């Protein structure tokens, strides 16, 4: 009814899974991993997954915010076919993947209670795969005029 809030499931238990994802709007594709923690080691795994999807002879630029696991000092290893572009602090509007997260939450990942950790991982995988399987969706969400590339 107008002026009321919709009911949402709530549970006091919690467990974490992290969906690491990157998209290429020009190619309308992405690369993602669901991992149990977010740190330099898991970010290195994600960068390796992105590097694996980059076409031979091409170079990827990965836009990053200021998350602690995005810092290159220490254990983060960046593949040779990737460069990191760090955004200024407090500027999520410059990162197209933020709109991807918003889309995933709005369509598949919000207001849910999961019975097990595996259910969380499955939901993240299902959401990412559904996004990737929809032709033109990544392009429509993540394209920015200032970052146009001709491939």
Give an account of the 3D structure.
This protein is of the alpha+beta class. The chain has a single domain, classed as Nucleotidyltransferase, domain 5 (2-Layer Sandwich). Helix content is 33%, strand content 16%. The protein has helices spanning 40-53, 97-109, 117-133, 137-142, and strands at 18-24, 29-35, 60-64, 82-86. The strands form 2 sheets. The chain has a two-stranded antiparallel sheet with strand order 1-2. It has a two-stranded parallel ribbon with strand order 3-4. Helix 2 (97-109) crosses helix 3. The longest helix has 17 residues, at 117-133.
Query: What is the molecular shape?
Result: globular
Q: Major sheet: order of its strands?
A: 1-2
CATH topology-level fold name: Nucleotidyltransferase, domain 5
Number of helices: 4
Given the helix and strand composition, which structural class is it? Answer: alpha+beta
Cα-atom Rg, whole angstroms? 17 Å
Name of the CATH class: Alpha Beta
Q: Share of helix among residues?
A: 25-40%
Features:
single chain, Nucleotidyltransferase, domain 5, 151 residues, alpha+beta, 4 helices
Short account of what is shown:
Helix content is 33%, strand content 16%.
